[in-house]
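Sharing a chain and its predicted structure for anyone who wants a worked example. Both blocks are below, sequence first, tokens second.
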Amino acid sequence: MRAVQTATGTADGVRERLRALFAAHGRPCVATIGTFDGVHAGHRALVARAASVARERGLPLVAVTFSPRPEVVTSSRRPLPDICGIDERVARLRAAGAADVVVVPFTRALMGVSAAEFAAHLTDDLGMEVLCVGADFAFGRGRAGTVAALRELGLEVVAVPTQARPGLRRKISSSSIRRAIAAGVPPGLALSLTPDVRGDLEPLDDLRRL
């Protein structure tokens, strides 16, 4: 993974950094985007679907993630700890099926980039041909980049249904795991105590066998 500078300052500065960052990883690809904290079962289902699409197209899968988590920057409250560090997140994304991982520094200045602008960086600089995201996904200023809006921009978007634990209506969630960790529960035990997640933090060797 290439080191990147923190995106601070003006919106124009952020755009230049995005252009350089994505161009450094650029090649025709299928992309998936998310915070992916913990790379839990729901994330892995998304990455697996994206990897399948990539294989069908004969393209590599590139995962785009953000660090720090957006809520760490936007929340006025003390942020909850990450489920795992960024290096482990990258390793888990690769183990789940990503050929490459781009880590985008998340700052308030980045929040000023519109969905259309961010999408243009993905297509023009990263080389994205297909985007695979969760059905409730949104990015860009004001979270305007919904699946429907991105399709209106001309992007090919594969929307993957939300993953829920059998018998429960709630989606698999990183936030529940983080709350348990914040309360002092070890990550592995937090998973067994959290009803809306499952198998989220298997050892990396086990994850590679999925």
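Comments welcome. Residues 89 and 205 are 14 Å apart (CA to CA).
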